[in-house]
Each structure stands twice: as C-alpha cells, then as structure tokens.
C-alpha cells in the first residue's frame, strides 16, 4: 500500500519483481540501476548467495520530484525465485503497489512459470492483496535464447486477462525500461483511483513516469 | 505483516543506522591525523555526537547553535584558527544528518587535506550506514520468515498430530471390529462344528438304527412266536399232568406196574425241583418283558434318529411335553441311577417350532442337571401354557452354579468340567436355539441347593 505523507509531501510506492528462479528479476534491476540517472536512484542493494542467487531480496530505490514539489519514492524489490523461499516471497510481497512478473521464455521453463504465477496469486491472497485489481505487468525475458515460446502464442495466452505483456532480453538491457514504464502506468492508474493523484495531489502521469527517465 | 513493510518503506534515522561508538572509534584515529573535531547532528541541527580534541570551545559552541550555519550543500568554513567541513549525510534520498569535521588551520595544506579526509570520512560513514541498513532489513525479514515458517510447521504438526490421533482411533476401532468379527467367526465355527457333529451322530444313528432295526425286528417277531409256543406248551403240559393225575387216581394196581410207579415217582420229584408252574408263569413274563424290551430299543433308536436326523430341518407343530419325554427316553440311562424324576406337565397346545432343536436344548439341560447331582437327587420338569407363550422349567437339586460363573454359562467353550469331560458348547447352543425361536432362557441357581432353567417360547416366533 502506497504510503502517502501529505505533510512532508512524500509518496512512497513499492513495486515487486516476481517470477521463477533465474528468470531475470535481479538483472532487470541491475539494468535499471545503470539506465536511470544517478541522482534519481540510490544504490542497488543485492543480497545473494555464493551462487549469485538472490537470498532475501534486491532493492533499488528511485526518486522523482514533481513540479509541485512532491517527492515520489519508488522502491523496486525482487524476490528469490527458488521454491523453498516461499516465506520470503510472501514477506517481500506484502503491501506492494504493483508487480512485474518476469517469465522465462524458454519452453523448458513454461511449467516453472505457471507454478510461480500461481504462487504469486496465492501469496497475494495471503497478504491481503486483491489479485484481480493488483497492477500487474508480465515480462517474457530471455528472448535471445533458442527454443523459446512464440510471441504470438504468448499474446494469445494473456489476451483474455488484459494484463500488459512485454518482451525483453534483460541481460542486454532490451525491454527493461519499457517493462518498468508499463508497470508504472498500471500503478499510476490504480493509485489515481485510490488517492486522487491527478486532481488531488496534482501528480500527473507523466510526472509519475519521469522517475524512469534516463 | 506491518513490521517488515515498515522496515522496507520507512526511512530510519541516525539512531538506527550509525551508532555512537563507531564515530567515537573513528574520532580517535582522526585526531591522530589532525582532525581534532568530529561531530554529527540530526537534520534539524540537534546534536547527535561530538568529539572535540581541539581544546577550543568555540566550534563546539557554534555547532550547538547549528541551525544558523548550514544548508544542504557541502561547505567548508573557517572559524578562528579552525577550518571545518560540513557535509550532509544522505540515505534513501533524505538528509538524515550532518557530518562536521574540523582541523587546525596552521598549515595551508590542511584545507586540501580536510577536503579529502572529509570525502573519505563521508564514504566511510555512508558505507557503514548502508551496511547497517542492509542488516536491519535482512534481520527483520529473516525474523518474519522464521516466525512464519515456524507457525506453518506448528500448524502442519498439529494437523499431523490430529491425523495420527484419528488413525490411532481408527486402529482401535478396527481392532475392536476385528475382535468382534473373530468372535462372530468363532461362534459360526462353533455352530458349524456342532452341526457337523450332529450330522455325524445322525449318520451314525441312522446307520446303527438300520442295523439294529433288523435284528430287533426278528427278535421281536420270534419272541412273539415263542410266546404263542409257550402258551401251547403250557396247555399241553397242563393236559399231561391232568392225565397223569387222573390216571394215578383211578388206581391201577400198584403191583401191576412197579416200573410205571417208579417212573411216576421220578416225575413227581422232577416236578418239585423244576417247579413247572413257576417256569410257565415266569416264561410268559420273561417273554412279555423281552418284547417290551425290543419295543424300547425300537423307540430309543427312533428317538435317536429323530434327534440327530441330518439334512434339512423344517419347522413343524409339536407338543413340547412329548418332545421332553422323547428326550428323556434317550438319556434315561444317564439319569436312572441318581435321579428321581418329577414331571408336572401343563396342558400345552401345539407349538410351531423345530422340535429336534428344542430336544437338543432339553437334553443339554437335563444331562447337566444329572451331572450336577453327585449321589442322589431330583429333577423336576414343569411345563405351563400362557396366553402368548409356553414355559418350561427344569430344576435340579444338584451342586448349583456359583455367582462368578453364572453370567458365563451361556458363553461358548465355558465349562467347569475337567478337560475332555465337557465341551462347553451345550448351553451356548441351547441359548442360540432358544433365541432362534424368539424365546428366552434364564437360570436361577444357589450353590449346594440346586439350579433351575426357565425357558420361554412364544407362539409368535416368525418361523
């Protein structure tokens, strides 16, 4: 749940990158860290095991300022993808304002993608998030690899859900910013309804999206 | 889960991120390098930490009045002979405090030194802060995960315990079921065994009956014939005697025939020793008794056949008094030496039943009664007719049944007789037969006084 401190003119938003193990969640954050203007971002905090697997989470803090002087802080988190770390995923997912689901495009990973997505839905329920209204973007990563799922098939799969789908190769930085902007849009729309961002707080969508500026 | 969210969302202050002792530790080394003044304030200028080796109170005082001399930008100031560097400490896009370092101005190089030292110091402080921040975050998430996992494990443990308890109860009830079923099987087996035994006896009886009936038949027939012959012989002998008597009485001269007279004397002697009157009478009696005996044999064989007749048993109308008599007939041998039999039969209408089976019941009880009587005693059999049922009471003056045994006498295989003497099946079978007739069987007994079995057989028995 976005934290709004009107006295300090500060809005804190949380977005979580979710998905199966090794799908590219941490890579997304690393790329964003490199892309985004240094003054608009903090240091990327990663906690990994010796095998470069995310242990608890990664955290990338971003900040933008509106013309009205409102500070928009966006905290990007990733979760550990390994199945055993479910309790951690639940803890990190708590009070999130938006989710990027990073799926591995490889055909061999389609079952893991499904399991992880179901896990997201389950954990969202367990921490009191209404999954149907949660701002959500799906990113099919690793488009550079062989034996990947067809783009048309992906769009076919997700068409009914009306969830935005992005394609990316995070390791080369491709599609990362687009995905991020996409989830920001979803989050803005949702928060606008709840907090009356545009007319009440005078925060426009463009200003909100400017957090992602390079 | 508010705690973790707070940690991840809010901005902790200096107190949480930079402990005093760290600064104190650094300040000691810094003083050796010429940085004689080190201080940290909160964003509002309030003092957080101060370490002053300068011996000069001025800077301290100034810093105490801090709000007046600072803004967000990095600044170097000169105050008397001290140059001080003020740097904002930023964490999560917020200024969480100000770091102030000071050197004596003596050497002109000191400005540059202070500049670089200040940078270094800031880097160290930032490094430490981000480290602490990271650790705080991970500790809190770790705690939550551990607690969450523990709760989940507890929950699953409880479920498992519950499941195990259910299984244990199932096992217990299964145990109970198995025990019951085993008993049922045992019972059924017992019944089968008995039926088998009865079938064998029946076959034996049938065989024996067949073998006996033949000779018994012609013995009886011969005896009857002998009876006739005896009657004829008697007639003839009587005739002869009369003739001799008459002949002797008409007095032929004794002298005429001495030989005849001697012969006559001899016969008279023979008559005395032989006593033909007695023989004649007794012969008739013997033959009569023998014929009765063969009739008895026939009846016993017939009763035995009836009693253990193998094959289909169909219900029929029977007179219970007759059934009891028939049974007594068979077992009379067991009873006759010890037992005085008293019968008080009521006027019983016919009962629709399995008479052979009821005979088994009467036999079991009467034999038990006889065995209970040590030397001499009485067996009393009373039958009564009531509106809806008939009652049969069989009492004996035997040794009685003790209180501890009396509840078990109808149990299968329960016997107080020595091994080989009793199977313990008789009363159980009797019980089952009475129950089959929708009846009731009870026992009343007193040790050393006697036992009474009370059997009730209703007319309405759905047979």
In terms of per-residue confidence, which ranges of chain B show pLDDT below 50 for 5 or more consecutive residues? 1-5
What amount of the residues of chain B lies in strands?
15-25%
CATH topology name of chain A = Rossmann fold
Task: Assign the CATH class of the largest domain in chain B.
Answer: Alpha Beta
* Gross geometry of chain A: globular
CATH level 4 superfamily of the largest domain in chain B:
Histidine kinase-like ATPase, C-terminal domain
Number of domains of chain A: 1
Class by SSE composition of chain A: alpha/beta
| CATH hierarchy class name of chain A | Alpha Beta
CA distance, first residue to last residue of chain A: 27 Å
User: What's the alpha carbon Rg of chain B, rounded to whole Å?
Assistant: 62 Å
The major β-sheet of chain A equals: 8 strands, mixed
Helix/strand order of chain A: EEHEEEHEHEHEHH
Task: Please characterize this protein's 3D structure.
The complex is a heterodimer of chains A (214) and B (463). Chain A is of the alpha/beta class. Chain A is 32% helix and 24% strand. Chain A is built from six helices and eight strands, in the order ββαβββαβαβαβαα. In chain A, strands 1, 2, 3, 4, 5, 6, 7 and 8 form an eight-stranded mixed β-sheet that branches. In chain A, strand 3 (45-48) and strand 4 (54-65) form a beta hairpin. In chain A, helix 2 (86-93) packs across helix 3. In chain B, strands 2-1-5-4-3 form a five-stranded antiparallel β-sheet, with helices on both faces. In chain B, helix 5 (110-249) packs antiparallel against helix 7 and helix 9 runs antiparallel to helix 11 (426-436). Chain B is rod-shaped, with a radius of gyration of 62 Å.
């Amino acid at each position: 749940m976005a934290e709004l401190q009107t006295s300090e003119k500060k809005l804190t938003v949380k977005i979580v990158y979710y998905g199966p193990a090794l799908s590219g969640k941490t890579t997304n954050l690393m790329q964003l860290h490199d892309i985004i203007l240094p003054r608009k971002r903090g240091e990327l905090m990663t906690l990994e095991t010796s095998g470069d697997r995310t242990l608890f989470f990664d955290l990338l803090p971003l900040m933008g300022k509106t013309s009205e002087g409102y500070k928009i802080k966006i905290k990007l988190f990733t979760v550990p993808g390994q199945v055993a770390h479910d309790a951690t995923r639940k803890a990190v997912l708590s009070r999130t304002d938006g989710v990027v689901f990073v799926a591995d495009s490889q055909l061999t990973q389609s079952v893991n993608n499904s399991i992880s997505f179901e896990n997201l839905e389950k954990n969202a329920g367990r921490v009191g998030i209404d999954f149907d209204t949660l701002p959500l973007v799906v990113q099919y990563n690793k488009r550079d690899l062989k034996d990947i799922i067809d783009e048309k098939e992906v769009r076919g799969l997700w068409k009914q859900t009306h969830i935005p789908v992005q394609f990316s190769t995070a390791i080369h930085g491709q599609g990362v910013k687009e995905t991020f902007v996409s989830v920001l849009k979803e989050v803005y729309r949702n928060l606008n309804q709840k907090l009356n961002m545009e007319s009440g707080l005078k925060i426009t969508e463009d200003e909100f999206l400017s957090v992602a500026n390079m | 889960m508010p705690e973790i969210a707070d940690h991840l969302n809010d901005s902790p202050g200096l107190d949480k991120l930079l402990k005093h002792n760290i600064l104190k530790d650094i300040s000691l080394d810094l003083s050796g390098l010429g940085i004689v003044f080190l201080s940290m304030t909160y964003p509002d200028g309030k003092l957080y930490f101060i370490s002053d080796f300068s011996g000069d109170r001025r800077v301290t005082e100034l810093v105490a009045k801090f709000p007046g001399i600072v803004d967000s930008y990095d600044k170097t100031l000169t105050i008397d002979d001290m140059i001080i560097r003020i740097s904002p400490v930023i964490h999560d896009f917020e200024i969480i405090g100000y770091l102030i370092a000071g050197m004596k101005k003596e050497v002109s190089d000191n400005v540059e030194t202070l500049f670089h030292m200040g940078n270094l110091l800031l880097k160290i402080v930032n490094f430490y802060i981000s480290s602490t921040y990271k650790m705080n975050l991970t500790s809190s998430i770790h705690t939550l995960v551990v607690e969450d996992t523990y709760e989940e494990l507890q929950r699953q443990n409880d479920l498992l315990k519950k499941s195990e308890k259910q299984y244990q109860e199932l096992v217990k009830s299964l145990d109970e079921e198995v025990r019951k079923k085993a008993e049922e099987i045992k019972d059924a087996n017992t019944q089968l065994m008995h039926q088998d035994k009865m079938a064998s006896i029946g076959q034996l009886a049938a065989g024996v009956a067949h073998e006996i009936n033949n000779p018994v038949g012609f013995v009886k027939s011969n005896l009857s014939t002998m009876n006739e012959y005896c009657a004829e012989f008697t007639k003839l002998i009587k005739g002869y005697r009369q003739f001799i008597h008459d002949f002797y009485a008409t007095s032929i001269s004794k002298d005429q025939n001495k030989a005849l007279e001697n012969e006559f004397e001899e016969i008279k002697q023979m008559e005395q020793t032989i006593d033909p009157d007695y023989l004649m009478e007794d012969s008739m009696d013997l033959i009569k008794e023998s014929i009765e005996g063969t009739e008895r044999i026939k009846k016993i064989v017939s009763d035995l056949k009836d009693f253990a007749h193998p094959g289909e048993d169909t219900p029929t109308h029977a007179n219970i008094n007759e059934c009891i008599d028939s049974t007594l007939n068979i077992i009379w041998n067991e009873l006759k030496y010890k037992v005085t039999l008293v019968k008080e039969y009521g006027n019983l209408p016919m009962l629709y039943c399995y008479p052979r089976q009821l005979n088994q019941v009467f036999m079991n009880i009467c034999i038990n009664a006889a065995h209970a009587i040590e030397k001499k005693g009485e067996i009393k059999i009373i039958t009564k007719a009531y509106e809806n049922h008939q009652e049969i009471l069989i009492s004996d003056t035997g040794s009685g049944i003790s209180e501890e045994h009396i509840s078990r006498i109808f149990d299968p295989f329960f016997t107080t007789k020595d091994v080989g003497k009793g199977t313990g099946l008789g009363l159980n079978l009797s019980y089952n037969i009475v129950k089959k007739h929708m009846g009731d069987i009870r026992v009343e007994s007193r040790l050393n006084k006697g036992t009474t079995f009370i059997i009730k057989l209703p007319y309405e028995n759905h047979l």
